[in-house]
Write a structure and sequence with these properties.
The chain has 257 residues and is an alpha/beta fold. The protein contains 8 helices and 14 strands. The chain is globular, with a radius of gyration of 18 Å.
């Protein structure tokens, strides 16, 4: 299994428009963070996690020529508004791309009616993404690309976000805490991906770094990688300050599991 972090930033991305802070003006390429997205490569295919606004650029940078399925964590704009970039894959294969999401299918359909309304057909010579939404239930394993995937729920303000466990990988973004069921399901993972905004100043809907580190220690993964980072933390600073076994992710990072 190989995990690729396509985007490791929050909804503003880094650099933030109009900001001249140390992170936004950094010459370290690891401090340039596009919106959240990832790939999981398994023998049965390639799973894309979310479709952020920069998806096309992320896939080009990663040299991706194929996506076989999509996992949506939730329907906030920074996680779904690159959905039209899936069009190239369905245009090539002439097959529908399966997209898994435990909750939010109706909102996704309303927001992108041109994709999901079967009566809306593209004009001759044009195309639209052909996506098949497949609901899954929290706590019930489902098979995706030949792998057993367990949907995991975490709170994100008034919304629920859905991470997953796939064998040795646990993947959680946009969480404020790990409910007991999710925590227990993550025990034994080798690699844990976890969101974290910044040091100090607790946020109402996201982990800060200290909270993410505490959650990572409790889960006990061999390696925890932080994502969904803001411009208030630099990559080099995180490397210096984070405890052993916890490290910052960066756009384009590849992890063999």
């Amino acid at each position: 299994m190989e995990l690729t972090l396509l985007g490791t930033g929050t909804s503003f991305g880094v650099p933030v428009i109009g900001c001249d802070c140390d992170t936004c003006t950094s010459d370290d390429p690891r401090d340039r963070r596009t919106r959240h997205g990832a790939l999981v490569d398994v023998p049965g295919g390639r799973l894309l996690v979310d479709t952020p606004p920069e998806l096309r650029l992320q896939l080009l940078a990663a040299g991706v020529d194929r996506v076989d399925a999509v996992w949506y964590t939730h329907v906030h704009a920074d996680h779904v508004h690159g959905i039209d970039d899936l069009r190239i894959f369905t245009a090539r294969t002439r097959q529908s791309l399966p997209a898994y999401l435990p909750e939010g299918a109706e909102e996704l359909r309303r927001r992108f009616l041109y994709i999901f309304d079967p009566t809306v057909r593209p004009a001759a010579g044009t195309s639209k993404p052909e996506i098949s939404l497949r609901p899954v239930r929290v706590g019930e394993e489902t098979e995706i690309l030949g792998e057993r995937v367990l949907p995991l729920a975490v709170p994100h303000g008034s919304m629920t976000v859905y991470g997953f466990r796939m064998g040795p990988l646990g993947y959680i973004t946009d969480a404020k805490r790990l409910p007991s069921d999710t925590f227990e399901a993550l025990r034994g993972v080798r690699v844990l991906v976890l969101n974290a905004l910044w040091w100090g100043n607790p946020h109402p809907t996201h982990f800060n770094v200290e909270e993410a580190v505490e959650a990572a220690r409790a889960v006990g993964a061999e390696r925890t990688i932080l994502t969904h980072l803001t411009h208030r933390v630099r990559h080099a600073e995180l490397l210096e300050r984070l405890p052993e076994g916890v490290e910052p992710g960066f756009d384009g990072m590849r992890i063999e599991i």
